[in-house]
Amino acid sequence: MCSQPPHSGYHWDGITPRFFEGWYFRVMIPPLADGFAFMYSIQDPRGGQVNSGGAVQILAIESHYLCRTFPDTDKFWASRQELAIIHWGKTNLKIRPRLLSPSDFFESIQEGYQATANQQQGRIYDPVTGGICQWDYRIETRYSWGDKKRPPQATAGILSYLPIFDPGWQILTAHGLATGMITYRGKNYQFENVPFYSEKNWGYSFPEKWFWINCNAFPENPDLTLTAVGSTRKVLNWTESVGIIGIHWQNRFYKFDIWNSQLTWTVQPWGYWEMRATNENYTIVLIGISDHPPDRVRVPTEKGLCFACQDTLKGKLSIKLADSRSKIIINASSRLAGLEIGGIWPSAWIKQ
Strand, coil or helix: what is 102? Predict the structure, then answer.
């Protein structure tokens, strides 16, 4: 089993009053042409602040959305050494939060979640239907981030270990396989070895502006996974625009970023994402399209958890990767891509 990626552990120093950390876990179910995204977050964990507390958001099948808040920060716990996070909402337990056995969790926790690199479990109440949403699945990691011949790498590079970037970002599982069950709106969705993806953010607040392209459910290329991002980022006292494209395929890793490639993009306020990158070895073109209205989700901001992000789990995506002699290496497409924009978008974002 490979080691966990850098930044898997919790980042709060136990002192800073303004801080957030958020985790994103997605399970795609190709036979249904749909999936579930689970978003956990904690904000101002010292407690006593206006925005102190945690939340669970679920972007569910057929664009359903569910959000539950857990205001008690004392019922949150996370490991600083590895991916292990817990937030208990309703429970009769009188102890400090800790990882429970899979069976004990559902016996003892009426609302809450626990998540590790290998297993996800949770249960929350749906006030719209009066029902319960419950999930329990295991994860096998195939790719974390970086060349498989080396230990997992920091997504934002070696400088991410220094407290100069805000927010921080790390891909935890670029591609994995999930097996288990999700119960939602009275239906049980059982699945085995379906595509799984996870990442996290941490810092003061989300960027002023960003877009995100991700897919690991290519019907003709089940080993292929791609993540691409463009974002503003605070670096000490100034703000910069950064971008990155990462592909894992057949045990190889292809990375394009602002330090090794020429990156350009054209992204509309909704519906169209185009990103291109060239370096001395490769050229890549990504085009994402969404015919669906966006699904709105909340993200941590300076004003708390707010609707500032538009998302879809069912975007169309095409990828073309060629070498320096124009030989096509990858030519793939999917209708199960994650496409997202966030922040302030008065017009198209064009970077040449």
Answer: helix
